[in-house]
Specification:
Residues 1-22 are annotated as: Disordered. The protein is an alpha/beta fold and 198 residues long. It contains 9 helices and 5 strands. It is elongated, with a radius of gyration of 26 Å.
Length: 198
């Protein structure tokens, strides 16, 4: 323990000292200086290499960087799958993807491209004519219960070996927002948010 004669002499703090400002007169200024020094040592910016990698990953997923960063921060992990509703894809009666949306899905890299389609479309027919989709299943409808919705949403994820936390749901109807909760998904985006970015 330091003696009274050591106070203010610039001696090195002893074991157990946290390196913070002392409690002597002038404490407010020393506290300010100490906190400023700490902030300078801990930058708020992402390292350039990490930023470049994340920009590239956002582009691979067809997302703008801001959206990708928000999803990643919320889920705590990378996006490994995109789950589209047939409404979001513009599939109504014709099983073929519209040209622009088909091209956007073709550019997606290193992520599963999943879809849930409503009747009268058949999941098998949509999968057969659209090579841009990896896995297609039947969409839950509002007359089915929560359990059926959860099973259909999580079922198509399981077919690709994906956990919900690594999948972003992209829909275009109020019911489809609930797919995100049912599948424990990383996030929900509207078709306009996703394809607007693409």
């Amino acid at each position: 323990m330091a003696s009274g004669s050591d106070v203010g002499t610039g001696s090195v703090p002893g074991l157990g000292h946290n390196g913070g400002p002392s409690m002597e007169p002038g404490m407010i200024w020393r506290t300010h200086a100490w906190r400023s020094a700490q902030k300078k040592l801990m930058p708020n910016t992402i390292p350039k290499l990490v930023l470049q990698m994340r920009l590239k990953r956002a582009a691979e997923l067809g997302m703008d960087y801001k959206t990708y960063a928000k999803v990643r921060q919320t889920s705590g992990q990378d996006v490994l799958g995109l789950l589209f509703s047939s409404n979001a894809l513009g599939l109504l009666r014709d099983p073929h993807l519209p040209e622009g949306k088909g091209a956007a899905l073709a550019r997606v890299a290193h992520a599963g491209r999943l879809a849930l389609v409503y009747r009268p479309l058949a999941a098998e027919a949509v999968a057969r004519v659209n090579t841009q989709l990896d896995t297609v299943g039947p969409a839950p409808v509002f007359t089915e219960g929560w359990g059926a919705m959860r099973e259909k949403v999580q079922g198509v994820m399981r077919q690709r070996g994906l956990s919900g936390a690594s999948v972003v749901v992209i829909g275009d109807a109020p019911l489809e927002r609930e797919w995100s909760t049912a599948g424990r998904a990383a996030a929900y985006l509207t078709a306009a948010e996703y394809f607007g970015a693409a």
